[in-house]
Amino acid sequence: MAGNSFGKFFTVTTFGESHGIAIGGIVDGCPPGLEISESDLQTDLDRRKPGTSRYTTARREDDEVQILSGVFEGKTTGTSIGLLIKNNDQRSGDYSNIADRFRPGHADYTYQQKYGARDYRGGGRSSARETAVRVAAGGIAKKFLKAEYGIEIHGYLSQLGPIKVDTVDTNVINTNPFFCPDESKLEALDAYMRDLKKSGDSIGAKVSVVAKGMPVGLGEPVFDRLDADIASAMMGINAVKGVEIGDGFDVVEQKGSEHRDTLTPQGFTSNHAGGVLGGISSGQDVVVHMALKPTSSISIPGQTIDISGNAIDIVTKGRHDPCVGIRAVPIAEAMLAIVLMDHCLRHRAQNGHVQSKTPIIPGSV
Amino acid sequence: MAGNSFGKFFTVTTFGESHGIAIGGIVDGCPPGLEISESDLQTDLDRRKPGTSRYTTARREDDEVQILSGVFEGKTTGTSIGLLIKNNDQRSGDYSNIADRFRPGHADYTYQQKYGARDYRGGGRSSARETAVRVAAGGIAKKFLKAEYGIEIHGYLSQLGPIKVDTVDTNVINTNPFFCPDESKLEALDAYMRDLKKSGDSIGAKVSVVAKGMPVGLGEPVFDRLDADIASAMMGINAVKGVEIGDGFDVVEQKGSEHRDTLTPQGFTSNHAGGVLGGISSGQDVVVHMALKPTSSISIPGQTIDISGNAIDIVTKGRHDPCVGIRAVPIAEAMLAIVLMDHCLRHRAQNGHVQSKTPIIPGSV
Amino acid sequence: MAGNSFGKFFTVTTFGESHGIAIGGIVDGCPPGLEISESDLQTDLDRRKPGTSRYTTARREDDEVQILSGVFEGKTTGTSIGLLIKNNDQRSGDYSNIADRFRPGHADYTYQQKYGARDYRGGGRSSARETAVRVAAGGIAKKFLKAEYGIEIHGYLSQLGPIKVDTVDTNVINTNPFFCPDESKLEALDAYMRDLKKSGDSIGAKVSVVAKGMPVGLGEPVFDRLDADIASAMMGINAVKGVEIGDGFDVVEQKGSEHRDTLTPQGFTSNHAGGVLGGISSGQDVVVHMALKPTSSISIPGQTIDISGNAIDIVTKGRHDPCVGIRAVPIAEAMLAIVLMDHCLRHRAQNGHVQSKTPIIPGSV
Amino acid sequence: MAGNSFGKFFTVTTFGESHGIAIGGIVDGCPPGLEISESDLQTDLDRRKPGTSRYTTARREDDEVQILSGVFEGKTTGTSIGLLIKNNDQRSGDYSNIADRFRPGHADYTYQQKYGARDYRGGGRSSARETAVRVAAGGIAKKFLKAEYGIEIHGYLSQLGPIKVDTVDTNVINTNPFFCPDESKLEALDAYMRDLKKSGDSIGAKVSVVAKGMPVGLGEPVFDRLDADIASAMMGINAVKGVEIGDGFDVVEQKGSEHRDTLTPQGFTSNHAGGVLGGISSGQDVVVHMALKPTSSISIPGQTIDISGNAIDIVTKGRHDPCVGIRAVPIAEAMLAIVLMDHCLRHRAQNGHVQSKTPIIPGSV
């Protein structure tokens, strides 16, 4: 219980169901003096919001965030920041047919068993709608990281079904509805998604996130390791089934002589580690990959059971994304920002006064 | 800071360095009345301990755990349990040569930059020696899960370098020094490791852990999801660079019609989800895979920098495992046990009195 | 930082300033299946709300709470509960004169020094307005405690300036604007407050809270003791400067033979301990007293400094309570309810399955 | 459960029973670079330890603390610090007679009911023996506060039964076994205690603690207020039944014009607030008082019940302090140090980089 908060120093707590009155959250721990406005948060909310292309759900939400507290005369005051996003386009009627049955691959069954009851409308709290609040909170963290440390975060789609990205051009990412960084793949993606939609099926995806401009020394050695916190943040995004840091599962077949990143007076010569050594940031780019399953909300009929345990057929209606991985890009960025900000604040507490540190690799701290 | 604790309801806090006087920890939150003794914990400590085969480090440690509190007349009292393991075979002299230089691929550089100083002997706190305490604490969790819920956990080596396991026979796992569940691969593993040792290099590995006898309903929907907590626990194990639940990265190329696990009155017909739906256990086996990098402690010379930023050559001496993945098997089991116990206790708090639940799939709760 | 949450198992997080758009909070950890509606929470909000008598501030707020999530078809779902209370009657203009100076006895100076800036309107986050959210959250806890354990909580004014209550008649408490349980003191209170208001001064008060129907065994032995958590909850209420459990400061002059409460087969014969022994509830009534300072917002001119450190005169305008202790009664009840609910949930987690307990004193568990 | 930790940024976790093998703890969150040795901690351990005067228990313990980790070459490394204190003089036989009965005024009954069993030897975990670990941990905090901020903490006995201290001379405190700061009362205390011991009874006490050299700005505004955390820390000390900050319960009869501390360009003119305004330190001395009950372990026979609920007579044997308040002085100092250090680290995290602050009252920050 009490599992709706994330972060120890910079803490985000959320509330809200897919078809309730509103969703929202409280951001606690933001230092005072940070310039922030609703429009700072809106950019990423718009990137995540539904109804922006034919390849995402047809549900239309403005996703306009309101800052209710914690900001005075344009700057954070150091007190808790209340965030509110109203739900406008609920069509709960779409969901009355699933009140007494469990959509396979969804949380319907586990919620019913865990709580003895559930808000079945649109999946209730298990809906990815809740992630809008994470994106808003992450917007605050992004602004802080950029202003205070020069850290910048960008995510992108690195694979969709069989289509793998070959090159990463960050300028391309936000020019297409797929957050794809490789212009040469856009046509193939478009064709693939068109066919997929026609078939009524859905597809998995791989999403990557990178943090540039990292300081050395973020992360704790044993349990609150930077990589462990990132893994928790990413695996906690709806539909994610795998997380990698740096070379990830490729390390299984690597030798030590090949994997270890050599240090030179000019810096590291490679980044197999993905920017984390012993749970602590090395100053290199933090590189994270994650696998997102295909949504189970598809129009192809399937078999399931009802609340009494009887076998029945099911077709998922409602409005859904054929590839939930796409819209996960701004969510993953937000969660990485929240983790990094949490660790930046820890770092300050630890090293503020006791000693000064001189960077060993010039410009690395 | 204060990053040496894991778990919210069942909390494990550890201390100790590789070459200090002792390592140890405090287990807080274990309910009263659980029969436990040092010998219950020793079994897994012995599986993890160094010096048991020619393929692990030659360091010899008895790893005898002492229970200092919290157990009275053979049963837990409900108060905190103090655990102590003495370090016997420290040869700190082996490490004097790395006091002023950074082993590539190790935490030497990040510790030095984070803290401004470090206990360089054997990697200090970054050494996997600390995981012995996790194994001891996990032993308490394992005992509880078995006694109270009938949950059983077993881990195994699923891949070592190029050698993949084909079949999983749990009876085979503990009969060989590799924790390999496939008897037909033992000879190949032996040959591979012999050659590897000769070459002075190291190799990565994939380790899997499975929990059987799971109840439905463990895990929170949004942030303290069961899969997110597992991801954090596993990524927090030294050398882990990737974590998967169920089909993991295979989902990227799966379609929704293929991935979703069908529910029938007799139960699920497949387990692509790996036992977790919407962050909550489904009652199916929880299936976790992780990738462990090859250790950077190899006898092949490499390049690095010293504490003043000068380029120097380095050869790692000391006694090391050529494949750290092998001994990670009992550690991964322990961490999964700790996560599951934490969620079992949450579950009790939540559902204790408000309502009774009838299992929908017979025998599923 | 991140100091806007209270409770570990039942967690209340609040946001909002005195003169912002709204105040609100998130209640996390409430088990599913509890019947709750806005009107359940409104009763106590109305008891706390300003503008109800001539002895409280003239500010008029409806204090209508809106439940935004976590309740479905009249029952809690087990997910986080979003609460919102709009601010209607802000007259921020009243406060422009304190933007650059520090009211003595207020948090103006400490906020300015801590954060480097502050929302000065009505004291911003330091205003007791925030406590409305605690009262709403406490309403949920009160309902749960009554429904699940039969625990009932009532608070009252036990002293106002020189006027001490002689008898406690719980039926009298809510019949007068002072929450005074002694009918014979009402006239004196009325006269005292009338004179006080005329003089432009304010007065301190003592408030008591009692929980009846307590189970045995709530509280942890060492750090999360029931009495320590109560002390934290009460001292955290605006203006509180002292907290007592049971006989409180009277114990200084007591002897052991006098203080210790004798146990008999029929129960305890006295309650000097105030219902807590060794940090754990004994099943007797939990008895708590607290001292509230006189508000520093008085119309008698005083001396202070401005933001540049210059000496200046100050008269506090705005609308204020001459005795803030009075309205603290429902706040103290709410905080006690939150602490007890937190410990009830812990208790379940701990004792759910391991063993059954037979009460030693009949009817005591 | 899991209630054996205190502090969020600087976290102390303890284990151990009165008559177990050892007691100990883990201090997590201490920044690196602090010079610390066992002898730094021993001073306060010796002040607290039993057997030093005829007015404390006759149990003899060396209370020698061993630092097992987290310190390298005389300085903290930033990792967790393991502390161990062996129990030498256990005479568990003394307690066999209370295995099946409940000493009135003790935690025997509540432990038995909470856990269904208990380590009855010397009160097990409920014994004040555990506080030795708090004193050791507090020693680290004291050293840090002095070195980094110039904060100094001293506690003293301010009342014992009917004998009240008139003057506070800090030079006198450690020259007598009562920690009494008023030389003129020593004779009276001696006579009182001699008579008390003869009578076989015990007496309550009032203890005060003061922190000097405070920075402005420690503490959070709403829930993790400095005063609330202090209240929790003090009420969590064995036998404490009341806590006051500044004027404490005297405020009940004070008027606002009298209570509010006037600010001048030279600083505050009085300290009724006890150094905390709105939950945040004002830079003035933090002043805390607490009431400690008379121990229930007295040689005067009493009535109680046994584990079956039968009425029986009881005489407490074992070796006990006739006034537990005396030895609480170093414990209270340690807990105040732990709270202040926790908030110093928070403060750093919050204000490290965003803005510089200029003190308004010269020398106040």
TrEMBL record, chains A, B, C, D:
GO terms of biological process kind: amino acid biosynthetic process; aromatic amino acid family biosynthetic process; chorismate biosynthetic process
Domain of life: Bacteria
A Pfam family of this chain: Chorismate_synt
Amino-acid positions noted as binding FMN in the UniProt annotation, renumbered to this chain: R125, S126, S127, N238, A239, G278, K293, P294, T295, S296, S297, R319
Quaternary structure annotation from Swiss-Prot or TrEMBL: Homotetramer.
Name used for this protein in its record: Chorismate synthase
Family: Belongs to the chorismate synthase family.
Keyword Transmembrane: no
EC number: 4.2.3.5
Gene Ontology MF term list: chorismate synthase activity; FMN binding
Cofactor(s) the protein requires to work: FMNH2
Record Gene3D superfamilies: Chorismate synthase AroC
First-tier enzyme category under EC: lyase
Entry-linked CDD domains: Chorismate_synthase
Annotated pathway: Metabolic intermediate biosynthesis; chorismate biosynthesis; chorismate from D-erythrose 4-phosphate and phosphoenolpyruvate: step 7/7
Annotated catalysed reactions: 5-O-(1-carboxyvinyl)-3-phosphoshikimate = chorismate + phosphate
